[in-house]
Amino acid sequence: MRHWIGALGAVAVGFGLAAVPEMATAEGLTLSRSTMNRAGVFKSQAKLLDGRLAKQYEGSARLKPKTPESLLPQPTARYSGRYKGEYLEAAKAAARRHGVPEDLFLRLVQQESGWNPGAVSVKGATGLAQLMPGTAQLLRVDINDPLQNLDGGARYLKMMFSKFGNWQLALAAYNAGPQAVEKHAGIPPYAETQNYVKVVWGG
Prior knowledge:
By secondary structure, the protein is mainly alpha-helical. It has helices at 2-14, 20-26, 38-61, 87-97, 102-113, 133-139, 146-164, 167-176, 178-184, 191-201. The longest helix is centred in the N-terminal third of the chain and has 24 residues, at 38-61. It is globular and about 40 Å long. The chain starts with a helix and ends with a helix.
């Protein structure tokens, strides 16, 4: 957004200061021709645009679950699992590919499947990242292929982060589903989910 505001400020200066006082007066600003300089033009216009954009996005910001201080960004605990097998580097690569903290994703896989590519839960979650069949179909990955399973898990976790803007809420959505996080406007009050977030996040 700052690049956009800067570009508008440059355009305003480029057209000359003669046209700016009229625009400033129309917006309720009281800058005069004699005192206005280039820095003043940029500052006043940037402030005006910032105010408008803040009002424009105020409503959409309220749609996201509230983030308590305990959920604000914090350093992710390092992965300290004993697994050093063939899928470790593949999991790291999947995390990097989709912009997920490596240690966070490694802890997720450890918690989900214990690094067992053949793990299947009673609910049907499958593989290293324990993807549900419907999620795998949505992501167009082969749920039974360990590498695709990891890629799908990392991609889905990043999707949840993009939706909720917070890694702990993303973990809660990964475990309980995004609808549960939306319904409770935060981590759902389910013992399993709360413990899952605590363990994977490293709290």
